[in-house]
Design goal:
Strand content: 15-25%
Distance between the termini: 65 Å
Shape: elongated
Largest sheet: 6 strands, mixed
Helix content: under 10%
Radius of gyration: 26 Å
């Protein structure tokens, strides 16, 4: 059983949206109006048990006063009979056999998303199924229309989104076909999960979601109240408890197919975690996502941060803590850290004290393979993780959305870059990994060469982008991590004073076959390497002062080696500088044998 005590907001791009991080209110107990048989029960902070299988209840909500233009969710039909948006029918499989059977990697459902990323792990697979309610007489799902306009769920102590949830279950209870016990797959007496998908809230321009049903405080200080900590829903012996903190999530649609929001908010409960936080100290908004601070290029005005490959990144971009903002909307698939937290990662723990040749990693999506290298004791990151990210799965090569509307235009959401993603995390490699996390971009930059959206919406400019040069891969640059690259194998861009570095290297990164598999070598001590080959920009500083390289040192085309002031290194075995490479012995440095 996993516990998630807080409700948290994922922020999606939106026009005129308020972007905030929200926490649950305390709410008030008391009796509930309505015709159902619900009774208020005493509740504790939210929890939800996730076993191998979850059967989710999905409800699409449109307030009657929500008439905004929304190509991804057109208004079709009258309240009470309005069909759900087209993409709503492909969110979840209804039957477990359809998830574990012939479902392929191109399946667009969230059932496929979680199954394929969990099915290789020792504690997988995770089988997520679900149904959309309410339904008309013919059994077709339709949109739920609340009895009051949106403002009626935001003003006063006896109102709020929690009351909307109570009203919803009153309506479902009144339908004799609705059996809430179907949504209790593990038979613990509690609703597995409610995905409440709200089209728009005309009175509070906020998109994203919140992991919890009890409600939150809006930026406009309007109260999203809850009627009770928990509800009992159903009739006679067919009842379940709905924990208003832990039995579901509210997801506001934000201008496109909302899989990203649904994955994220469901993930808060599934992974029993809040937002992943960068190891980088607070206040380092314009810094690399590594353990000591070096400025890096940040897209102006977007606050995009280095957790673009981690689905549980998020949080409000607030002026005093802009480092929490993220590029989370770029990639949909889970990171190796998230797979580790659930026991879905197939780990290979490497010993950095010995040479290892030909470490093979299949692509993360579908295989769950992660290579982990222990680093150091103390307060720094304890584990270097390498994972192979390729566009081999549906959600890593998410197709373009052509919404047939120039307001949104063509939006691309595929994996920004391919190769070996290097990340850092606290904790033993054999453990689950914590909520503190960094990605280690070999170039120290997150460049955005071109936009990924050609519509005219304000939300179509920055959020959909193509990140580049942030992975290890074959090519003229970014092909290795050594003690001299930035960040280096210890996770630092510059070693702190007095720090003894790790001397291993991750090098010779290459493709291995036609299925996206990659391979690399680990050199335990580059100082003892017969022939040092430098294939990425490197810096030798105080940590290398006095080193004597007995074997030849070669700097390859496209790479630059800088020897920093105050550092003496001796190239006793010779120094070879390929055409297109550079060696810079900076003023105040001594490079013996580099003539």
């Amino acid at each position: 059983m996993r516990f998630f005590p807080l409700a948290v907001l994922l922020l999606a791009p939106a026009v005129e949206a308020q972007h905030v991080c929200l926490t649950p209110g305390t709410g008030q107990g008391g009796g509930l109006p309505g015709t159902g048989t619900r009774a208020v029960v005493d509740g504790t902070p939210g929890s939800i048990a996730f076993e191998d299988s979850v059967h989710a209840l999905v409800v699409f909500v449109r307030f009657e006063n929500d008439t905004d233009r929304a190509p991804e969710w057109p208004i079709r039909g009258e309240p009470g009979v309005e069909p759900i948006p087209d993409w709503g029918g492909t969110l979840l499989k209804e039957n477990p056999a359809d998830v574990t059977g012939a479902m392929g990697l191109d399946d667009p459902t969230l059932s496929a998303y979680f199954f394929w990323q969990s099915q290789s792990g020792p504690e997988g697979p995770h089988v997520l199924t679900g149904e959309v309610w309410p339904r008309d007489r013919g059994g077709r799902p339709h949109v739920f229309t609340p009895s009051k306009p949106s403002a009626g769920y935001q003003a006063g102590r006896e109102s709020g989104y929690g009351y909307l949830v109570a009203e919803l279950f009153d309506a479902l209870d009144a339908d004799p076909r609705f059996d809430p016990t179907r949504f209790d797959a593990n038979r613990d007496g509690e609703l597995d999960h409610l995905m409440l998908v709200v089209r728009r809230d005309p009175d509070v321009r906020v998109t994203g979601g919140v992991a919890g049903l009890s409600g939150v405080n809006s930026p406009a200080a309007r109260t999203f109240g809850r009627p009770a900590a928990a509800l009992t829903v159903g009739r006679r012996d067919r009842t379940v408890t709905v924990d208003m903190n832990g039995s579901g999530a509210i997801n506001w649609v934000g201008g496109e197919y909302s899989a990203a929001t649904l994955i994220h908010e469901y993930g808060h409960v599934l992974f029993s975690m809040g937002h992943t936080r960068m190891i980088t100290p607070e206040g380092a908004a314009v810094r690399t996502a590594v353990s000591n601070d070096v400025p890096y290029w940040v897209p102006e005005g977007t606050g995009a941060y280095a957790c673009a490959y981690n689905r549980m990144c998020g949080g409000g971009a607030r002026g005093d803590r802009p480092y929490e903002s993220s590029g989370y909307d770029v990639t949909l698939t889970l990171s190796g850290l998230e797979l580790r937290r659930m026991g879905w990662a197939r780990r290979t723990v490497l010993d950095p004290s010995r040479d290892t040749t030909g470490v093979r990693l299949r692509t993360l999506y579908g295989s769950g393979e992660v290579a982990l290298i222990p680093l150091r004791d103390g307060s720094g990151a304890d584990t270097l993780s390498l994972e192979n990210r390729q566009r081999n799965g549906y959600f890593d090569r998410f197709p373009s959305w052509d919404l047939e509307d120039p307001y949104y235009g063509l939006v691309n959401r595929d994996l920004p870059s391919t190769g070996l993603l290097a990340t850092l995390s606290y904790g033993d490699p054999a453990g689950p990994g914590g909520a503190l996390y960094d990605i280690a971009p070999p170039s120290n930059r997150f460049r955005r060469p071109r936009s990924r959206c050609d519509g005219t919406s304000d939300g179509c400019v920055d959020p959909y982008v193509w990140w580049a040069r942030d992975m290890l891969r074959p090519g003229p640059s970014a092909t290795q991590m050594t003690p001299w690259t930035r960040p280096n194998v210890s996770g630092y861009t510059h070693y702190p004073e007095g720090f003894e570095p790790n001397w291993f290297a991750v090098t010779n990164v290459r493709h291995d076959g036609d299925d996206g598999t990659m391979a690399f070598d680990v050199v335990a001590d580059v100082r003892e390497w017969d022939a040092i080959v430098i294939t990425a920009d490197s810096w030798m500083g105080a940590e290398s002062d006095g080193l004597v390289f007995d074997g030849p040192v070669r700097v390859t085309d496209g790479a630059t080696l800088r020897v920093e002031p105050g550092t003496t290194v001796t190239f006793a075995g010779g120094l070879v500088v390929d055409e297109g490479a550079r060696v810079l012995c900076l003023p105040g440095a001594t490079c013996v044998g580099a003539e």
